[in-house]
Amino acid sequence: MLLLALRSPLHAALLATAAIAASGSAATAQSEENRLETVEVRAKQLQMDLLKQQSLTPGGLSLIDGEALYQRNVSNLADMLRYAPGIWSDSASGGDSVFLSSRGSNLDATDYDANGIKLLQDGLPVTTADGNNHNRFIDPLAARYASVARGANALTYGAATLGGAINFQTPTARDSAPVQAFFSGGSDGLLNARASIGGVGDNGLDGLLSVEHKAFDGYREHSAQRRNGLYANAGWQFSERGETRLFFNWLDNDSELPGNLSAEQVADDSSQATADALRGNYSRDVKSWRLASTTRWNLNDNSDLSFGLSWEEQSLHHPIVDVAVDFDGPGPQPPTQVFSLLIDTDHRNIGANARYNLRAGNHDVLLGIDLGDNAVTGGNYSHRGGERTRLDTRVDNSARSVEAFAVDRWQLASNWTLVYGLQALWTEREIWNETVASGALRNPEGSYDSVNPRLGLIYDVSDNVSLFANLSRTYEAPTNYELEDDVSASNALLDAMSGTVLEVGSRGQQALGNASNWHWDVALYYGEINDEILSVDDPAAPGTSLSANVDNTIHAGIEALVGASFALDAAGVHSLQPTLSVTVNEFSFDDDALYGDNQLPAAPGYALRGEVLYRHASGFYAGPTFDVIDERYADFANTYQVESYQLLGLRAGYSSERWELFAEVKNLLDEDYIATVKVRDVAAPDAAVLAPGARLSAFAGVRFAL
C-alpha cells in the first residue's frame, strides 16, 4: 500500500505529513498526552450535545459519529448512511455517485438530481437554492459527525422537504488529534489515503489541514474513480464567549459511469459496461472549491447568536448520452450516432444563515433564516467519445431562496415538552435554455412561497425513555432540472409538492443487569402528498426525462434503530453488541387515474441492515454483518420487478488510543444482486435499467494518531 502511495505527489505529501508528526512526537510526548486528554473531554461534550439535540426532537433523528466510520470500509455516502433508518442509498458502481432517498424522496428517472433532502456542511448549504444535489456529495470521512433529520424533523435546519436534511460537521483541531494518517485499500483497486495535521495556540487560534486521495478501479468495466481533496479550517476564539471559523475545501473528482444493464446482460456478465457508455465515455468530472465562515457568540448564559456565509464554485464535464443505431444490422457499416448529450456547465452556489437561540424559563426558542442563490451557465453539447463537438443548447439558469423559521421547545411540565414552530419559504426559479440551431427559447420562470407549521410533543416516561409525536406540513418546489424536463415542454411552471405528515415513536435506553443495556429509536410516519413531482424516462428519446405533477401519493413507513451491549462476563471484559437498522416503506400512488394504487419504484418494501459484534475490553472486535432487502419495482406501471436479496459480511478490528485497524469482507457468499435501478414509466423485460452490486470483496485499513 505504501508503494502505491508513492506514485503521486499528493500521496508523498500524505506520507511526509505522517513522518513529520512521528519524528516530533518523542520531544513533545507530555504535551501530546495532555492534548489527547483535552480531545477526549471535547469528544464527550460533543456526544452530550448531540444526544441533547436528539432528545429535543419529536421525531426521526439519527446521529452518526465520524470516528466510528474508521472501524469499517466507508467508500461513499451510502456506506456512511448504512445504519441510518429511513434512508435508502446505494452506489450504482461502488464510487461516489450514489442514489439517495429519504422517506421516499427522489424515486424517479432524475435520481441523479438527488432532490428531496437538504445537505449542509457546518450548518451551511451544499444543496443548491433550487434543491438539487446532483454534482457533489460530501466526503463522509471528512465529517466529525453527521445529523440525519428525516422529514419535518429538519425544521431547525430550515428545511421542509419530504426527506429532511443531513448536516455534516467538520472536524477541527479542538476535537481531533494533532496528527493523523489513514490508509485503506482492497478489492477492485481501492486505495484511500488521507492525513491531517493541526494545532491549538495559546492565543485562541487553531487550525487543521487535511489532504486525501481516493483511487478506485471499480468492480464494473468503465467505473474507475480518481479523487483528490484538501480540507482546511482555522478558528479564533476572540473571547470566552465567541469564536469565528474559516473553512476551505478543494475537490477534483473524476468518475467513469458504466451505464445500466438488462437482466440478460447481468446474467451474462454483471461486470460489463454498456456499449454506449464505452463509446460515449460516460463520466462525471467535477472540480470545485468552497470557502465558508461561521461565527458564534454566547451573548449570556441564556442566549447565543451565530451566522455563516459560504461560496462554492463548480465546473461539471458530464458526457451521459450516446445513442447509436446500426441501420444495416450486423453488416459492414458501424452504428450511426443519432443523439448525444454532454453537459458542460459552471455552477456558483452562495449560502448564508443566521441563528438566535434564547432560553427563558421553560422555553427554548430558536429563530433562524437561510438564504441561497445559485447560477448555472454553460451548455449542452453533442460529443464524440466524451469530447465536445457542437453546442446544441445554451444554458443560463438561476434560483434564489429564503427560508425563515421559528421553533419553541416549551417544557410544559417536568416530563412534557411541546415543540411547535413555523417555516416560511420563498423561492424563485428561472430557466433560460436557447436551442442554438433554431434560436428557440424556453424561459419558464416564477416564484413559490409557503408557510409550513409543525406541532410536536415529547413525553419523558423516565430519565432514559421518551415517547414523541408530531404533525407537520412538507413543501417542496421543483428544481430547475425538473422545470427543464417539464412534460409540457413550454414555459408553464410545475406546481410545488406539499403534504401533511403524522409521526409517532419512541427512543431510549434500558439497563439489563449490571453491565448490559439496550437502546432504541423507533418512528412510524404516514404522509399524504399532493402534486408530487415525478420524472420518467422518455421512450422517444432515451436518456432524457419528462417531469409532471401527480395528484396524490402516500409516503408511510417504519424506521427503527435498535442496539444492545450484553456483558458475557461479570467483569465486563467480553461483550456482545448487536445493531439492527430496520426500514419499512409504503410508497404508492393514491387512486391515480393512470397508475391506480401502484407502488412507487426504486425503493424496496423493507430493508434490514445489521451486525453482531463481539468486543473485548482491550479494543478487539469481530462479527458478521448482514443485509436483507425486499423486492422493488423499476417502473411506475409495476410490470418490472427487481428481486430481493440477502448479503452476509464479516468485519474485525482493533481500536486503541493511537491505533485503529480494521478488516472487512463484503458479500461473503458472492451473491448476485442489484444495487440501484433506472426508473421507467413502463419497463420492458429487456430494458437496460439495472446496476449490479459488488460481488465478494475485501478491504483493510489502518489509522494512526499522535
Question: Which terms would index this structure?
Answer:
706 residues, five-stranded mixed beta sheet, 56% strand, globular
Give the C-alpha Rg.
Answer: 25 Å
Number of domains: 1
Distance between the termini: 21 Å
Kindly report the average pLDDT value: 91
Tell me what the structure shows.
This protein is mostly beta strands. It has one domain: Maltoporin, Chain A, CATH 2.40.170.20. About 10% of the residues lie in helices and about 55% in strands. It is built from seven helices and 35 strands. The strands form five sheets. It has a 22-stranded antiparallel beta barrel. It has a five-stranded mixed beta sheet with strand order 1-6-7-4-5, with helices on one face. A two-stranded antiparallel ribbon has the order 2-3. The radius of gyration is 25 Å and the shape is globular. The model is unreliable at about 1-30 (pLDDT under 50).
Task: Write a concise synopsis of the structure shown.
By secondary structure, the protein is mainly beta.
